[in-house]
Amino acid sequence: MHDNNKDKMLNLLLVISASLLAIVILLASVVYLNRNPDISDLSINDRMRLLSMADRITPDAYQKFPPSGDMLFYHLAPDTNYQNTFGTSFTTNELGFRSPPAHDPGAANEKRLLLVGDSWTFGPGVSDGERFGRVLQNLLNANGDKWSVHNLSMIGWNTDNELNALRTFLSVLHPDIVVLCPTSNDIDDSLAVWRGRLVNDGFDSHALFRYSYEYERRWIDVFRTIDRGMAFLNDLGIPTLVYFLAEWRKLAPYYANNSGFKAKYTVVPTEYIHTRYRLDSSRDGGRHANAEGHRLIGTYLYNALIAAGLVSADAPAPLDTTVSFPGVTFDDIETDFGFWWKHAQARDLIPMDGDYMGKRGFFSVLSDRTSRGVRVRFRLLDNPGLYPLHVKARLAAPEKITGEHTFEQYVGGIQEIDLPKPVSLDTYPIIELELVCNRIVSPQGLSPVCLKLEDLAVH
């Protein structure tokens, strides 16, 4: 009888334990299912599957514009009301932009100022009345003039997109003044944004500056492209101003000097893009300007237009900061490059699936004056579809230094390509190396790869 009671008690304890365990599992499931997901936790394969699923169930916000070669750009659906899109609601004009109508019979006597830019000019997360273009328009019209500020901007555009769109719609918009608003990620090769950022030519700056030959070369190309675009407009009799928005600090004059930049330009004061003037990340992942930030950006631009002699007014608007046109004078660039240093040390400039590289890889490594070579080490994949595999390495340098090897079949162990480092790179604390394969395979699903990177080092 005593043993009977012990058995009953033991069974009861087991039942209670099982019930508690079930409750714990249930609570854990509820917590897991209700947690905030982080897409960075997903593999590239999982992300591609997620994007593929989203493509079937969600409509496009963007629309492709008829292809225009390497300067392909996109816009939004014309005459469309967007609700809760990019953190706000708005209606596009007949050209597919968040802007007043391009053809407005009632605006025949108005002067037109055209803003051309990317997301900072587009204004995600703020209403139409809060954007700096509207702030500028209100200030211009407070003098008794009749101005209409139009907006030719799109999230994700780079300067090629912006200038190509400007040329495309120039004869439709008939601007009296054009203000181009480049930002610090216009160095990207990304020519389109479909469900996220796609890097078509192997480069994504992550909106930062790196003190390296490759970044300097690309920024010089961007500045020269802008300069040619502004010269084209000036030759047509259209006054221009370049307004460098977030986040330049003092680096614009450095690239202006190195590129022979002649266009009139100013830079948004760094204090106007501090955290208190930017949207919270829960509302806008890009943390663009909030309403107060737009007010400051628009007011500074108004004063800059007056100082440049492009518009007339009795006096500039009240503002703590005096407008400056830096030209090609710069100093203390190490401090400004240092601001980006923590982020600038990223090795993989093209996202990889773990250490597995797609058809093209672009990598960076810290260097110093004493190093005289760069060595990349990798492992081949035991997959017959890859071979013969041609692997080419290019050191980002003025001397166009390359090394290559063809593997007729799979070879085990670590392979390497060693490149000499020229004296021309001794100035830079970071150097970059490009790696390109002629074939890829997809052994584990959707993510195509060609090799596994082991190491990149200077010696």
Global Rg: 27 Å
Question: What does the average pLDDT come to?
Answer: 84
Number of strands: 19
Task: Identify the strand order in the major beta sheet.
Answer: 6-5-7-10-11
Main sheet: strands, sense, barrel? 5 strands, parallel
The CATH topology assignment of the largest domain is: Rossmann fold
Stretches where pLDDT is under 50 for at least 5 consecutive residues are 28-33, 54-59, 189-202
Structural class: alpha+beta
Could you characterize what this model shows?
The protein is of the alpha+beta class. It has three domains: 2-35; 59-339, Rossmann fold (3-Layer(aba) Sandwich); 345-458, Sandwich (Jelly Rolls), CATH 2.60.120.260. 29% of the residues lie in helices and 22% in strands. The chain contains ten helices and 19 strands. The chain has helices at 2-33, 44-57, 119-122, 132-141, 159-173, 213-235, 251-259, 291-307, 333-339, 341-344, and strands at residues 62-64, 74-76, 81-85, 88-91, 111-117, 147-153, 177-181, 192-193, 197-198, 240-244, 265-267, 356-357, 360-366, 373-380, 389-395, 401-407, 414-420, 430-437, 451-458. A five-stranded parallel β-sheet has the order 6-5-7-10-11, with helices on both faces. Strand 10 (240-244), helix 7 and strand 11 form a beta-alpha-beta unit. Helix 4 packs across helix 8.
